């Protein structure tokens, strides 16, 4: 260990600065430690001659890279924070990448679905109705199959697509089966949960939890699995701007009458 051979007065911070910010080569190692030390610290030539042959430069570079990576991981100083759902790429039911930025300007209803749940029939039926009614006005429903709740989505993607598209006639896009809770949760779901927490914690409680996303990709609301898609219709219309247009239709005739 290098630290066991250092003088007591040798400053630790300059060492780390040197390791993190100076390119280390055989000719530079002694000079890095010497010039990074404070003026009051004396480093003997004996120390420099000891450190050069015993600590190969590649080891220092490995240490520097590892320290920097660990520091970044602990502090999150260089990690890019996702600001909207448009920052994510997911896979569709056929395994193709889908950049969610293609939905910019759309209102999104994101749902974790299952084929064998007690809520399946009512939710698929009502989701179809809402989608058919508002898809031309800018609504998209994104369905993510998940098998984490009671094992109620056990099939592979082909079987899931058969149930959703053939049995329930779903016209909205179905995506790859994902996990929504735990360390293996899909990044998009980590973002959704951190944006809108639920009752008794952020975790998804069951199949058919719903997230409503505005035209800018911001998560604006979250609905429990038992919430009927039809009951969300008013919120969808508000984000689509349809409530404002209805108000205008009522206001203009009333002005003409007066």
Automatic annotation (TrEMBL):
GO molecular function terms listed in the Swiss-Prot or TrEMBL record: phospholipid-hydroperoxide glutathione peroxidase activity
Tagged with keyword Oxidoreductase: yes
Keyword terms: Oxidoreductase, Peroxidase
Cellular component, GO annotation: cytosol
SUPFAM superfamilies named in the record: Thioredoxin-like (SSF52833)
Thioredoxin domain ranges (all copies): 79-248
Catalytic function, reaction form: a hydroperoxy polyunsaturated fatty acid + 2 glutathione = a hydroxy polyunsaturated fatty acid + glutathione disulfide + H2O
Cited Gene3D superfamilies: Glutaredoxin (3.40.30.10)
GO biological process: response to oxidative stress
Family in the record: Belongs to the glutathione peroxidase family.
Function, in words: Protects cells and enzymes from oxidative damage, by catalyzing the reduction of hydrogen peroxide, lipid peroxides and organic hydroperoxide, by glutathione.
Protein name: Glutathione peroxidase
């Amino acid at each position: 260990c290098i630290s066991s051979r250092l003088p007591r007065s040798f400053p630790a911070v300059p060492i780390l600065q040197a390791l993190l910010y100076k390119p280390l080569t055989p000719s530079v190692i002694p000079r890095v430690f010497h010039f990074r030390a404070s003026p009051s610290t004396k480093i003997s030539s004996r120390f420099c001659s000891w450190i050069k042959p015993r600590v190969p430069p590649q080891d220092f570079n490995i240490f520097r890279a590892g320290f920097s990576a660990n520091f970044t991981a602990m502090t999150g100083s260089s990690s890019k924070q996702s600001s909207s759902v448009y920052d994510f790429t997911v896979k569709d039911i056929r395994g193709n990448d889908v950049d969610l930025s293609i939905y910019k300007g759309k209102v999104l209803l994101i749902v974790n679905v299952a084929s064998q749940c007690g809520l399946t029939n009512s939710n698929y039926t009502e989701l179809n109705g809402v989608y058919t009614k508002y898809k031309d006005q800018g609504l998209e429903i994104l369905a993510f199959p998940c098998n984490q709740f009671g094992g109620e989505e056990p099939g592979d993607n082909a079987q899931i697509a058969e149930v959703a598209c053939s049995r329930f006639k779903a016209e909205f896009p179905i995506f790859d089966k994902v996990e929504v809770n735990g360390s293996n949760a899909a990044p998009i779901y980590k973002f959704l949960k951190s944006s809108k927490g639920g009752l008794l914690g952020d975790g998804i409680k069951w199949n058919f939890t719903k997230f409503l996303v505005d035209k800018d990709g911001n998560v604006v609301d979250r609905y429990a699995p038992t919430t009927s898609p039809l009951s969300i219709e008013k919120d969808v219309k508000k984000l689509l701007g349809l409530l404002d247009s209805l108000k205008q239709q009522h206001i203009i005739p009333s002005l003409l009458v007066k």
